[in-house]
């Protein structure tokens, strides 16, 4: 897949911390309940930590109690990319930044949360940067 922002693995490693690189470039997962945005209520926009593309709004963030920040929709469908993920013996849908291809997390649906979309974008805090509203 071709992305608007493309860098070599060496450039990504120089830009990102080892933990950020593991999640964003190697599709890793941060441990639950430790991310800086898991319980954040600050109003603002969440952007990709790797490239700065705006991805999610605090307006769609909700308490799922799953251990990671959860949103019921991205800012716009063209902001994220969906990839079928059959790793770990499960069938899931991976969510990536559509601008740089950074791994964000996964999206689940039909879990019974009272959200307008019946979806839960389960996103790693370390993949995001919050820009508070002014």
Automatic annotation (TrEMBL):
InterPro entries: Met_Sox_Rdtase_MsrB, Met_Sox_Rdtase_MsrB_dom, Mss4-like_sf. It comes from the Bacteria. GO terms for cellular component: cytoplasm. Signal peptide: none annotated. Residues 9-133 form the MsrB domain. GO terms for biological process: protein repair; response to oxidative stress. One of its GO terms (molecular function) is peptide-methionine (R)-S-oxide reductase activity. Its EC number is 1.8.4.12. It catalyses: L-methionyl-[protein] + [thioredoxin]-disulfide + H2O = L-methionyl-(R)-S-oxide-[protein] + [thioredoxin]-dithiol. Its cofactor is Zn(2+). Keywords: Metal-binding, Oxidoreductase, Zinc. NCBIfam families: peptide-methionine (R)-S-oxide reductase MsrB. This is peptide-methionine (R)-S-oxide reductase. It comes from Streptomyces rubellomurinus (strain ATCC 31215).
């Amino acid at each position: 897949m071709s992305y608007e922002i493309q860098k070599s693995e060496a450039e990504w490693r120089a830009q990102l911390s080892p933990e950020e690189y593991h999640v964003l470039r190697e599709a890793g997962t941060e441990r639950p309940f430790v991310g800086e945005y898991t319980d954040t209520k600050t109003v603002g926009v969440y952007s990709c930590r790797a490239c700065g593309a705006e991805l999610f709004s605090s307006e769609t963030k909700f308490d799922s109690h799953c251990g990671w920040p959860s949103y019921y929709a991205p800012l716009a469908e063209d902001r994220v990319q969906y990839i079928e993920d059959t790793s770990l013996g499960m069938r899931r849908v991976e969510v990536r930044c559509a601008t740089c291809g950074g791994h964000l997390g996964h999206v689940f649906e039909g879990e019974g949360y009272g959200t307008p979309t019946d979806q839960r974008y389960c996103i790693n805090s370390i993949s995001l940067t919050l820009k508070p509203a002014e």
